Amino acid sequence: MRGAPTALRLRLGPLRAQVRRRSLAVGGLAAGASAVLLVVALGSGTFPVAPAEVVGVLAGWNDDPLLQTVVREWRLPRALGALGVGALLGIAGALFQTVTRNPLASPDILGLSSGAFTGMLASLVLFSASWPALVAGSLLGASATAAAIWLLAWQDGLQGFRLIVVGIGVSAMLSSLNTWMLLQIELETAMFASAWGAGSLNGVTAEAVAGALVCAVPFAAVAFSLAPRLRQLELGDDLAAATGARPHLVRSLALLVGVVLVAAATTVGGPIAFVALAAPQIGRLLARTPHLSLGVSALVGATVLVASDLIAQHLLPAPLPVGVVTVSVGGAYLVLMIVLEVRRRV
């Protein structure tokens, strides 16, 4: 007797996809967890709001002016920023890890987040703190860093381990450059930039979140459209080319999309570390799939960052930037991954 099929065929207009049932279940659980954490985040603070009242405000059933102000104007931009940034980092991490075939290859490890922050600092110093200038600086910084890493790591092809080593070196150089620039600017601006550089969602505005998502959503759509081609790359370049894919074009497009997503995320919360590294692998382990799912990675990334921001705001003796929490948790995860990678290579 044959069991139920493990995959479902989905169709939306001209788009078709085959999704494993377990991936759908994991994605649904992550989406549910994100929704619950969102309600908790909107209700937590010096003025607590009950979950039912939060849901009422979001649904438009509760028109209390005070609750509208607290939930919608004060807390909602930050919570949505955490969801959006986490999702963008999850997708970017899955793209980089798939293209390089290495679970340690993530935008923050490779130095792209530091490069985006360098570009933002340069625009802050040379031009202004306007949002368009910061976005342009972030995008240029991440793109220039990606190009430099690509050129330095290229040697008869692009090898994942070499890419990571070069990326770590470039990241260290950029961190030194960022520190030097912070020492050259005015104290007030330096304090603002330092808090931002630690990875913080303090002061996130609805305009910044909306602007980043408007820039990033079309590129995220491109990433999902590339998913079937990325699966073909897992077969190797020769087999992928034989089955209709163009490996170099797909790889370049995927990295370009990943750079843009990281730049957009950095404009909202600064260089938040380890979410892009951990979210795709956590999603793969939960879904038990041989490949990284972009959708599951996005949902897991959103859940991880919202939970980390709740811890940073409310569960520690003093509020801290969310980047401090993700670094603390992600550091242990990185050590574990390095040990497993070394054992696999021995």
UniProtKB/TrEMBL annotation:
CDD domains given in the database record: TM_ABC_iron-siderophores_like
Single Gene Ontology MF annotation: transmembrane transporter activity
Leader peptide range in chain numbering: none
Topological type in the membrane: Multi-pass membrane protein
A GO BP annotation: siderophore-iron import into cell
InterPro entries, per the entry: ABC_BtuC-like, ABC_transptr_permease_BtuC
Membrane spanning stretches: 76-97, 109-127, 133-154, 161-183, 253-279, 318-340
Major localization listed first in the record, in broad terms: membrane
The protein, known as: Iron chelate uptake ABC transporter family permease subunit
